Amino acid sequence: MSTLPSRDDYVYMAKLSEQAERYDEMVENMKKVAAEEQELSVEERNLLSVAYKNVIGARRASWRIISSIEQKEKSKGNMEHMAIVTKQRHAVEKELSDICKDILNVLEEYLLKNATSGESKVFFLKMKGDYYRYIAEFETTEKRKEASDNSLDAYKAATVTANSELAPTHPIRLGLALNFSVFYYEILNSPEKACHLAKQAFDDAIAELDSLSEDSYKDSTLIMQLLRDNLTLWTSDIQDAADAPKHEEAHKDADAAAADDKEDADVEPTA
Questions:
Q1: Which of 142, 208, 227, 231 has minimal CB crowding within 10 Å?
Q2: Buried b (16+ CB within 10 A) or exposed e, 86-125
Q3: pLDDT tens-digit profile of 57-90?
Q4: CATH number of the domain encompassing residue 32
Q5: Where are the beta strands (DSSP E) in 7-139?
Q6: Average of pLDDT values for 189-215?
Q7: Residue 148 lies inside a defined structural domain of this protein
Q8: Rounded Cα–Cα distance for residues 41 and 28 (Å)
Q9: What pTM did the predictor assign?
Q10: pLDDT (tens digit per residue) in 81-121
Q11: What does the alpha-carbon distance between residue 184 and residue 120 come to, in Å, rounded to a whole number?
């Protein structure tokens, strides 16, 4: 008589799925782990995050490409092609919506309820903010506003906990600041706020760099570099926008800037 797979079995199968790049299966295995209603380990958090990040990442990339093609067909006045592309975009948006709703349900149903450590709370609240942000990327009107509001609330809650329980150099706190600043730039169209948040996180981390643990050094400095890259890009865009009326110079449009914005890679401390 066969027995049901254990928690360790599901974790092993998730690792196997990751190596085989079968991310849909990886998601299903990690959902089984999450449903056991106990706090996830660092390794399990990473596996869950990587699984959903790959599943959603492929669709987000598809959506951006299809949306760009749709605009080109519209500008050419090719309505027949545009109708085909629009239908494809709607199909991708349905997939995006389903994936986001799935992880958001897992977060509310299990992960946030079972999170006891500051690290876990910040990690999962950040995930909640991220996946509502992904919804806001493609939704319009009231659905976009609702997703944006939910994302903002989650990021704010994560920030409160991060500021009180995690060091400024902690990779999860830095990753939160990075993604929260991208939210302000892309979703709320607030480049000044995005720059302020990113600069504050970077400066706070620099001030305590000497106390950074060896285990977290690589992860933290990587995210700090991403924060600095975005600051450079966004500051340039703000200056271009200010100069445009006077000099009429070409500057990077919103779509191009958004494609260049960097998020964290869901890095985690290895210890």
A1: 142
A2: beebeebbeebbebbebbbebbeebbbeebeebbbbbbbb
A3: 999 999 999 999 999 999 999 899 999 999 999 9
A4: 1.20.190.20
A5: none
A6: 92
A7: no
A8: 17
A9: 0.88
A10: 999 999 999 999 999 999 999 999 999 999 999 999 999 99
A11: 23
Crossing angle of the two packed helices 42-76 and 118-138, in degrees rounded to 10: 10
Angle at 104 between CA 101 and CA 108, to 5 degrees: 135
Pair 171, 177: CB distance under 8 Å: no
Q: Is residue 251 one of the residues assigned to a domain?
A: no
Domain region containing 39: 1-117
Please state, in angstroms and rounded to a whole number, the distance separating the CA atoms of residues 135 and 148.
Answer: 8
Residue 9 lies in a domain: yes
The residue type found at 206 is I
| Structural domain contains residue 71 | yes
- Nearest Cα residue to 266 out of 12, 9, 42, 92: 42
Provide the domain count of the chain.
1
Distances in Å between the Cα of 246 and the Cα atoms of 43, 206, 239, 241 are: 53, 37, 12, 10
Cβ–Cβ under 8 Å, residues 33 and 2: no
